[in-house]
């Protein structure tokens, strides 16, 4: 069966806005909706998908840089029916600012396995380092996570501005996290969208919102995905809506870019 092979990077200007939790739960939800999914922890500064899953990986993304290691050796199966995970290495800050040959090697190795998946989710670190920008440019779609805090809005604007002005990227989905209700989410989205229209000449796409929910912090404490622990919680229902919207979008649009295009970014 031919797979959708859509890659998504989950980014933000500011840390602590919910990227890792959203990535993880979207992976579980997309999988529950009959997709083959792989989630890759690309936050090499503060890798913590493994902590949220309560697992201690033996190998990680960094090991893939050794010539004799195959991608299959670093993949952890979260569900036998097609939900996989590649862990990163915490504290490997020297890798954060990727050299082009390191990215090339990673891309070449990952390429051999990624065609098996419908969705490839990249959990990235916050901010605008070269490594982060390069991953964000390599995917079919980008989801920028914002919260209603003014600092989150200004920092996401800075991130979008760099990706637009320096790399000509103008497709961004916006997900507003930690909101009270839909009105608050729409208001935050509009503030960012107005600034992007006015100063960057681009229109952002509204992906939806995730409500503030104590169950999510509880899931973090228990080191289990929210979707597993509290599938009917507010935040989980919101994430299910978002996953369905993403599936719908990818079915209606013909995306030119499939898989990961790390190598292409370096040709620029
Ligand atoms: N919708 C939410 N409701 C309640 N708490 C949340 C929500 N989203 C995130 N959080 C809290 O924010 C913390 C940071 O989330 P995390 O996914 O690690 O952010 P990031 O990856 O962007 O740094 C979580 O541990 C959780 O306690
Ligand atoms: Mg994170």
Q: How are the strands of the biggest sheet laid out side by side? A: 3-4-2-5-1-6-7-8
How large a portion of the residues is in β-strands, by DSSP E? 15-25%
Distance between the termini: 33 Å
The sequence of SSEs as H and E is EHEHHEEHHEHEHEHEHHHH
Measured as a percent range, the helix fraction is: 40-55%
Query: Low-confidence stretches at least 5 residues in length (pLDDT < 50)?
Result: none
Question: Mean pLDDT across all residues, rounded?
Answer: 91
CATH topology (level 3) name: Rossmann fold
Overall radius of gyration: 17 Å
How many beta-strand elements? 8
* Highest CATH level, the class: Alpha Beta
Annotated CATH homologous superfamily: P-loop containing nucleotide triphosphate hydrolases
CATH architecture assignment name: 3-Layer(aba) Sandwich
Which structural category fits the helices and strands? alpha/beta
Number of domains: 1
InterPro entries: CobQ/CobB/MinD/ParA_Nub-bd_dom, FlhG, MinD_FleN, P-loop_NTPase, ParA/MinD_ATPase
Pfam families: CbiA
Protein name: Flagellar biosynthesis protein FlhG
Keywords: ATP-binding, Cell projection, Cilium, Flagellum, Nucleotide-binding
Mind explaining what this structure looks like?
It comes from Desulfonauticus submarinus. Keywords: ATP-binding, Cell projection, Cilium, Flagellum, Nucleotide-binding. One of its GO terms (biological process) is negative regulation of cell division. There is one protein chain. The chain has 268 residues and is of the alpha/beta class. The chain has one domain: P-loop containing nucleotide triphosphate hydrolases (Rossmann fold), CATH 3.40.50. The protein contains twelve helices and eight strands. It has an eight-stranded mixed beta sheet with strand order 3-4-2-5-1-6-7-8, sandwiched between helices. Helix 1 packs across helix 11 and helix 7 packs parallel to helix 8. The model has no long low-confidence stretch (mean pLDDT 91). The chain binds adenosine-5'-diphosphate (ADP) and magnesium ion. The site of adenosine-5'-diphosphate (ADP) has 17 residues, from helix 1, strand 7 and helix 9.
């Amino acid at each position: 069966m031919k797979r959708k092979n859509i890659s998504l990077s989950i980014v933000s200007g500011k840390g602590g806005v919910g990227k890792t939790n959203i990535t993880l739960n979207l992976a579980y939800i997309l999988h529950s909706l009959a997709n083959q999914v792989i989630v890759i922890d690309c936050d090499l500064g503060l890798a913590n998908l493994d902590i949220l899953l309560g697992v201690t990986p033996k190998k990680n993304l960094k090991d893939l840089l050794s010539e004799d290691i195959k991608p299959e050796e670093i993949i952890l199966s979260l569900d036998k029916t097609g939900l996989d995970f590649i862990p990163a290495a915490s504290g490997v800050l020297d890798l954060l600012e990727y050299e082009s040959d390191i990215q090339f090697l990673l891309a070449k190795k990952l390429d051999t396995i990624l065609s098996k998946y419908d969705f490839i989710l990249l959990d990235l670190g916050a901010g605008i380092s070269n490594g982060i920008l390069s991953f964000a440019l390599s995917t079919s779609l980008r989801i920028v996570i914002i919260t209603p805090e003014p600092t989150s809005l200004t920092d996401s604007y800075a991130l979008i501005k760099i990706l637009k002005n320096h790399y000509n990227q103008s497709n961004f989905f916006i997900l507003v996290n930690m909101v009270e209700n839909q009105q608050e989410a729409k208001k935050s989205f509009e503030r960012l969208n107005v600034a992007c229209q006015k100063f960057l000449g681009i229109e952002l796409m509204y992906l939806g919102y995730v409500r503030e929910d104590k169950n999510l912090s509880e899931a973090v404490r228990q080191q289990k995905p929210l979707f597993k622990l509290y599938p009917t919680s507010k935040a989980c229902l919101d994430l299910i809506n978002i996953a369905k919207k993403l599936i719908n979008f990818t079915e209606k649009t013909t995306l030119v870019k499939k898989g990961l295009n790390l190598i292409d970014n370096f040709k620029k």
